[in-house]
Amino acid sequence: MIALQAADIQPFWLTLKLATITTMVLIVLAIPLARWLAFGRSPLRPIVETLCNLPLVLPPTVLGFYLLVSFSPVSFTGRWLQDVLGLKLVFTFSGLVIGSVIFSLPFMLQPLVAAFRQLPSNLIDAARTLGKTEGTILTRVILPNARAGLLSGTVLAFAHTVGEFGVVLMLGGGVTGDTQVASIALYRKVEALDYAGAHSYALVLVSFAFVVLLLLRLIQSRHETRPC
Amino acid sequence: MNRIPATLTRVEHGAGMTLIEAEAAARSGLPLVATIVGEVALTVGAAVVLACKETEVALAKHLSGEISLRNRHGARVVGLDSGSVLTRVQLDWHGQRIASVITTGSAQRLGLRIGDDVEWLVKANEMAVETA
Amino acid sequence: MLNLALTHTIPTPEGPRPLHVELALSPGERLALYGPSGVGKTTLLRLIAGLARPDQGRIAFGDTVWCDTGRRVHAPARERRVGYVFQDYALFPNMRVRDNLAFAQPTPNRNRLDELLALTRLAPLAERYPHQLSGGQRQRVALARALAQEPQLLLMDEPLSALDPALRVALREEIDEILHTVQLTTVIVSHDLGDVFRLAHRVAVLEPGKVAALGTPRDVLLPPTPGGRHALSGTVLAIEPADVLWRVTVAIGNDTVATLSADVDQLRIGAPVAVQLNGSSAVLQPA
Fold first, then answer.
1. How far is C1 from chain A (nearest CA, A)?
2. Between chains, do C77 and A129 touch, taking CB under 8 Å as contact?
3. Would you list the DSSP string of A25-39?
4. Phi, psi of A33 (to 5 degrees)
5. Where are the extended beta strands (E) located within chain C?
């Protein structure tokens, strides 16, 4: 950390805070959604799944642009959010969380849905014949046996939020101390021709990505060596 | 497989078995018997075919004394076909062809020649019944 | 005890086909569902368990109506107290043997759990995970777990089909003893005659679309054999000259037999052949 001063650590804290909150919101959101996608019967499932996966292929700026437009106080939805719910989402941390949740959703959802779909359907049927409620089946049978998928999803969603740039730039605007996360800070350093500072941010982000991917690899290999 | 057309003269059931007595169609007065595992619905007077494998037919000359076999009848040797181990003997039994496969050693011991008179013998449980 | 009369569409390779079934089981009775695969045996078990809904019909257990499509009644599986032994066992991989059983118990009861482990000879394996067990052991866990929920009806789907023949015979006798001990009304799906004769009091023979026969295994599955010869179906493997005869080798299932035959004109290598066995000449040796 050659050139990082106290003020430069701040974007990292903000990044971690954003990634942690985003990941927690995603866990709560994605588990029921994945369950519905994996075991539900509705014909709407392919459409919903496709919508959830759009961030995988869209340039992040597209998503950021739409969110910016719809959260803006001059738009109908933005005014409604502000007047009725008292939510100000443009250039604020709450707005960043919502944007990140939407943007990182597929990274949490995909491993979960895949893990749920891999479970033998007889496992769930067996729990049903044993008199268990759907809630008990989720917590005692489905989730424990989809641990690897849940872990992968958590790690990926967290890492992806850390690495995101387009959405946070469009929606957050890079307000120091409020919405300026590490990737934005790096961009600003380059803009200001402070290459030493930029290197420090870049190095930390690269190391983090490496550790995350290594962790993911270890989770997967551990799962492979423990057959059900 | 030897197939002998016959008419049922007696059908008896018991202990999960069926005992059958029949008379060969070739000539009257030629009784045949068969025992069958299982209770088979057959009626006296029905035309059937009794079947036995060639290798289950024994041959004898000048047989004397008592023997449990009831399927024993005199016939004439009309064909001999000898191999190194087995010999097939063709018999004429009142116009009905019967084939017997015995060991070549036994055929030599009996001194079988075409035209010889012999007796053929089959145990009742080796006779199967095919409805005609 | 169990009464059902229903019609349900079964997907078959020739397209969907309705299956109509009417059955009544008395308390403690063990009924086998016997028939070729794809005829709807497993589907029938799932309908009884409440894991699927029949197109039309009624299922009642004692005085309780589990399902009546006419009155739109359908009790979910968790309310039926049906012990279900799945063909693939469906043990919970995240739970040890003991926990699989404990999870199934309606109220925790350590003594009863130990009794069940003893009854199914699983006590030494109680702390193992399913993936640490052999096929036969998993099958016993599946049965023990189904019993641990104190079911009022037991359903077993091909309980022994995944096991090799030697183990199959031993475990079949064990299951027979366990079922004798617990005296539960039981429905067993099998396409194995050994299972049917050893484990069931009555058998329903399923054919596409219907129950073709219902009665004791002896009455239903051992029809009289005309002529006293029992035919096994086999395949001709080889026809070789043997002196004045032919030595014909035939595969029956996984075994081969060789026999001497005088007439082989009609036999072709690779073609199906009926091997007739004289009822009193077959020699039996314990294998």
1. 19
2. yes
3. HHHHHHHHHHHHHHH
4. -65, -45
5. 2-12, 15-25, 30-34, 56-61, 64-68, 73-74, 82-85, 153-157, 186-190, 202-207, 210-215, 229-242, 245-252, 255-261, 272-278
> C278 at the B interface (CB within 8 A)?
yes
Q: Helix, strand or coil for residue C264?
A: coil
Q: Where are the alpha helices (DSSP H) in chain A?
A: 6-39, 45-57, 60-71, 76-84, 93-118, 121-129, 134-136, 143-145, 147-163, 166-172, 182-191, 195-225
- Residues belonging to chain A: 228
Task: Count Cα atoms within 13 angstroms, Cβ side, for C76.
Answer: 10
Task: With a cut of 80, say whether residue A178 has pLDDT above it.
Answer: no
Q: Looking at residue B66, which CATH number applies to its domain?
A: 2.40.50.100
* pLDDT, mean of residues B119-128: 92
Q: What is the pLDDT of residue C280?
A: 66
C119 — alpha (psi -120 to 50), left (phi > 0) or beta? alpha
The separation between CA C10 and the C-alpha centre of its own chain, rounded to angstroms, equals: 19
Q: Do chains A and B touch (3 or more CB pairs under 8 A)?
A: no
For C49, nearest residue in chain A (alpha carbons):
A129
Confidence class for position B72, pLDDT limits 50, 70, 90: very high
- pLDDT for A1 beyond 50: no
CA distance A167 to A94: 13
Domain interval for residue B18: 2-131
Q: What pLDDT is stored for residue A225 in this prediction?
A: 52
Q: Measured between alpha carbons, how far is C105 from C146 in angstroms, rounded to an integer?
A: 9
- C277 close to C229: Cβ distance less than 8 angstroms: yes
**Residue A37 maps to a domain:** yes
Structural domains for chain C: 2-221 (3.40.50.300), 228-278 (2.40.50)
ipTM score of complex: 0.81
| 3-state DSSP assignment of residue B15 | coil
Q: Where are the alpha helices (DSSP H) in B18-60?
A: none
Q: Is C281 at the interface with chain B, CB within 8 A?
A: yes
Question: Measured at the alpha carbon of residue C95, what is the angle toward residues C90 and C99, in degrees to the nearest 5?
Answer: 100
Q: Please, which residues 231-270 of chain C have a Cβ atom closer than 8 Å to chain B?
A: 242-245, 260, 262-263
Cβ partners under 8 Å of residue C270, min gap 6: C235, C236, C237
Do at least 3 CB pairs under 8 Å connect C with B?
Answer: yes
Whether A210 is in a domain gets the answer: yes
Compute the average pLDDT of residues B9-37: 88
Spans in chain C with pLDDT lower than 70: 223-230, 279-281, 287
Phi, psi at residue C254, to the nearest 5°? -95, 0
What's the domain count of chain A?
1
10 Å CB burial of residue C48 (0-12, 13-18, 19+) is buried
Q: Domain containing A57 — which CATH number?
A: 1.10.3720.10
Could you tell me the pLDDT band of residue B41, with boundaries at 50, 70 and 90? confident
Mean pLDDT (chain A) is 85
Q: Is C75 helix (H, G, I), strand (E, B) or coil?
A: coil
Q: What is the pLDDT of residue A228?
A: 43
Is the confidence at residue B26, as pLDDT, over 60? yes
| SS3 state at A89 | coil
Residue A227 has pLDDT above 50, yes or no: no
Structural domain that includes position A186? 6-225
Q: How many domains does chain B have?
A: 1
**Residue A1 within any structural domain of the chain:** no
Per-residue pLDDT band for A135 (boundaries 50, 70, 90) equals very high
Please, which chains are in contact with B (at least 3 CB pairs closer than 8 A)? C
A78-113 tens-digit pLDDT: 888 887 777 777 788 888 898 899 999 999 999 999
| Position A168 in a domain | yes
